[in-house]
C-alpha cells in the first residue's frame, strides 16, 4: 500500500535510513564533534586575501528574471554528452545544440558525491549539508527568494520521502514539494501502465517536465516563480526511459537513458517555445546533481568520482533570452546559489562558499566527499582532508593503505586508484596550509 511504501522510504533506505537519521540527531545534540578554529598566520591571511576567497561580487540587472528554473539532471557526466565526447557520435543532439548556442562552462565540477549533498550545495552555497540543516540562522536560496515574493516549487518523479529529502527541502525553504505521492493522485493509471518505471524510481522525467510546463502556463506573467526540477531517468544502474527502445538506440543502458533524457528535455524546450514561455523574464539553469557513481564501460569515459583527485566534470548551461554573459571560466555546485541570488539582485551572504558565475571572472570550484574536501585554484587541484589520516605505519616504518575495488575493475581503474592513493599521500601534510585552514573554518562555520 502507499502507507507501507512511505514507511519503507523513511526507515529502510540504506543511505540515510530513519534510524540512522535519528541516531545522528542524538549524536549531534548530545555529543557534538569538537571543532577548533584554525588560526591563520599573517602569511596565511595574505595568501587568502590575494586569492579573494571571501569576495562576493554582484551586478544590477535592470529587469531581473521573474521565472527561474533550475534543472538538476541525475548523474550526468559531461562525457555522456556527445558535445564533449566524440566517441558517442551525436547521441545528445538537443543538449549539444544548447551548449553550442547558449552560455556554458566547460570547467564545471560537482561539490558533493550524491544527490542530496549536491542539491544542498546548489541551493545553499555550502558544502556542509549538516551545517546547513542545523544552523538556525542559515538561509538557503529558496527561503531568500520567497522573502522577496517568489513562489518556490520543487518537482521530482521519485518519492518525497527518499533519504528523508522532504525534511531537507522544507529547510531549504520551498513553498511546495510535488513528488511521486502527488503524481499518484494526478495520474493513478501510471503504476499499472508502466510498472517497470513506477516500481523503481516512480514517475519518469516526461511527467516532471510536463508538470513544469503546466505550472508556467498557469503562472501570471508578473508572478515570481522559482522551480527546481530533479530528474531520475538517468539513475544507476542502467537508467530508465519512457520511450520504447528501437534498433537505432544505443545498446549501452546508460547511454540509452541519457539519449532518452535528451529527447525528453528537447521536447520540454520545444514546449517552452511553442507556448511562448521562454521570454525575456525567464532563465533556465541546467546542471547535474553528481557524477555517475559506478564503473561502467562507456567509450571515452573516465570514471574519477573521488575528491582525493580532480573529479570529472558535469554540465552547466544558462538558457535565457536575451543571453546572459557568464564571466567565470570555472565553477562548481556552490556557485549556483550565489548566481541565483545575483540574478535576483540579492546580496550574497558571507557564509556562502561560492561566487556568482555572472559577476566573477575567477572562481574556485570546491567540494566535499564525506571527510575529504577539495579546492581548485586555476589548474592546481588541492585535496583538503578533513577526516582522519587514511594511512597506518607498519613495523618497518612504511606507510600502508588499502584499496577497495569492484570485482570487475579494469587495469585502468586499478591504476587510477593507485594514483589516487599517491595523491592522498602527498596531501597528507597539507593540513597546515592556508587553504586547508580557510576551508576547515568555512566548512564548519567557525570565525574569530
Q: Could you write a compact summary of the structure shown?
A:
By secondary structure, the chain is an alpha/beta fold.
What overall geometry do the principal axes of the alpha carbons give? globular
Strands of the widest sheet, in order across it, are 4-3-5-1-6-7
- Count of DSSP-assigned helices: 16
The low-confidence runs, each spanning 5 or more residues with pLDDT under 50, are 8-15
Beta content: 5-15%
End-to-end separation in angstroms reads 53 Å
Question: Can you count the beta strands?
Answer: 13
Largest sheet: 6 strands, mixed
Radius of gyration: 22 Å
The helix fraction, in percent, is: 25-40%
For the residues shown, what is the average pLDDT? 86
Give the topology string: H per helix, E per strand: HHHEHEHHHEHEHHHHEHEEEHEEEEEHH
Class based on secondary structure composition and strand pairing: alpha/beta
Give the secondary structure arrangement, pairings included.
Elements: H1 2-11, H2 18-30, H3 42-51, E1 67-73, H4 93-101, E2 107-109, H5 115-124, H6 129-134, H7 141-146, E3 151-156, H8 165-172, E4 176-178, H9 180-186, H10 190-193, H11 195-201, H12 205-218, E5 225-230, H13 253-274, E6 282-288, E7 316-320, E8 330-332, H14 333-343, E9 366-369, E10 372-377, E11 380-385, E12 392-393, E13 399-400, H15 411-427, H16 434-443
Parallel strand pairs: 1-5, 1-6, 2-8, 3-4, 3-5
Antiparallel strand pairs: 6-7, 9-10, 10-11, 12-13
Question: How would you portray this structure in words?
Answer:
The protein has 448 residues and is an alpha/beta fold. The protein is built from 16 helices and 13 strands. The strands form 4 sheets. Strands 4-3-5-1-6-7 form a 6-stranded mixed β-sheet, sandwiched between helices. The longest helix is centred in the middle third of the chain and has 22 residues, at 253-274. It is globular.
